[in-house]
Amino acid sequence: MTVEIKIENLSVKKGHKTSGYIPVPQTDLSLPVTIINGEKVGKTVLITSGIHNAEYTGIQTAIELAAELQPDEVNGCLILIHPVNISGFENRTMSAVAEDGKNLNRLFPGNPNGTIGDKIAHFIVTAFFSQTDYFIDLHAGDGFETLTPYVYYVGAASAAVVEQSKAMAEKINVPYMVKSFIATGGAYNYAGSCGIPGILIERGGEARWSKTEIHLYKADVKNVLRSLKVLAGAVDQNAQKPVDVVDVIYEIARVTGCWYPDKKPGELVKKGAMLGVIKDYFGKVLAICEAEHDGVVLYQVSSLCIIEDDTLIAYGKIAV
Ligand SMILES: [Zn+2]
């Protein structure tokens, strides 16, 4: 039975809640963290937001959950970081850690002797994953991306961890879920390979957020927490139960230029269908993107600017 939760300078007795900044070792950064140490025993759930700092729906959801949830309704412990990429947030970058330009969700498990991003990832692993039973990572489309809501779950882990991760994903009220086969790089991927079941939720994008999206996002997180018995109450039978999308193609831009997408997120596409074109500044077509197989569009870049080697569009087959 856990009596006191302690993460670096923050310690929280059973039945209490604390919010404060936790310094990242060997950096000038401090992360805003809330720990809700429930009155009753249960599992510890880590909820991270803003690993990609322009994904505001996830960040605002974590901020509101941290403010609203109380120790008397929590069985176990909730740890929320809101947001993780604090320097990116305060410099309004898109995804990148301000100091090194790196995508934090490609750096796990991190490196204490690396750049600032590497150090943040290492710190999340050593200080937070070490105390985590389940992991929920809140994302959205980036500032230049639009998407249909969906959820990733850990797929490169033990059978039990994969099964529990999928069960978490199925509690999310979205049409699609994607099993991830990566074991490092992303925070939840690496957590999975450490034996922590986890999901990454995608809802919102284009550096916007709305009360409607936050309402839906909070309902999703609470439903997972009820299924893990960390919150009391019956698990909602959502309007949508996500179905697996498989063979996801992350189409890469071959050139830098102007991007003219032909489809919208959530749209079904047929093999050979035009997905969009890249043109130069004079209207000359530089590249044509066509669907390699039937599927559904999960997300795509929505900015006019497309940069070589960026993911243009992601789509996959709806499993039957
Ligand atoms: Zn993200």
UniProtKB/TrEMBL annotation:
User: Gene3D superfamilies per the record?
Assistant: Zn peptidases
The cofactor named in the record is: Zn(2+)
Q: What InterPro entries does UniProt report for this protein, alphabetically? A: AstE_AspA_cat, N-alpha-Ac-DABA-like, N-alpha-Ac-DABA_deacetylase
Q: Provide the alphabetized UniProt keywords.
A: Hydrolase, Metal-binding, Zinc
Q: Which residues form a coiled coil?
A: none
SUPFAM superfamilies in alphabetical order: Zn-dependent exopeptidases (SSF53187)
Return the Pfam families for the record: AstE_AspA_cat (PF24827)
Domain (Succinylglutamate desuccinylase/Aspartoacylase catalytic): residue spans on this chain: 42-227
PANTHER family documented for this protein: BLL3975 PROTEIN
Name the chain's protein. Answer: Succinylglutamate desuccinylase
Lineage of the organism: Bacteria, Bacillati, Bacillota, Clostridia, Eubacteriales
